[in-house]
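tool_call: predict_structure(chain=1)
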Amino acid sequence: MQLTIREAASYLGVSEPTVRRWVGQRGLPVHEVHERFYLNPLELWEWAAENNIPVSRGLLEKARRSPDEIPPLAELLRTGGIFHEVEGATKGEVLRAFVDRLPLPPEQDRAFLLSVLEAREAMGSTGIGNGIAIPHVRNPIVLHIDRPFVTLCLLRHPVEFDAPDGKPVHALFLVVSPTVPAHLQILARLGFVLRDEVLREMLRRSAPADDVLGRIELVESSRTTGSFAA
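tool_result:
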């Protein structure tokens, strides 16, 4: 999880203006997300150690929790949800229905997220072929959330998405993460499991969520075992 300026100031035992000054004058690393600044606990801990700045023990505990220890893809989907019979006749309608279903904290701006997804689609389709799309922006969707998740929407009717293979889209995945490395890891896992023909057929026929999750668990486990049963 990323820290706000206020949280970082608390761990460092200084004021928020001091933290902001250190960002500009002493190279304290920050990440800007939607015009807000966040700090990675591990980066903050390392910076404080290098600059001989005392920090609370709580920051050390938070830094020890690797931000890149990503849960299995099936668990990420259980958190984000699998939704069937999602309505929409156009890209815009589908994206709006998708964003409405995301399990975001109340303070997150859904309208802004929808606008950046629509802008990305205007630049080029996020359809990847075989009736599947992974809406995203050029920069990963990184939000101030406690843990990453993946949401899957299975459409009631396929929608034209200008996909490279020309096929309309019936399944959309969206990855939301608190860090860029986590986002990229999840995308890589998603790309791996979507190579499975059985899973793609399940998505095409809008199979029950438990069946989809079970297949994803089986396919993802093959990354370590090297094979899986059909």
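agent: The domain at 3-64 is CATH 1.10.1660.10 (Multidrug-efflux Transporter Regulator; Chain: A; Domain 2). Proceeding to next step.
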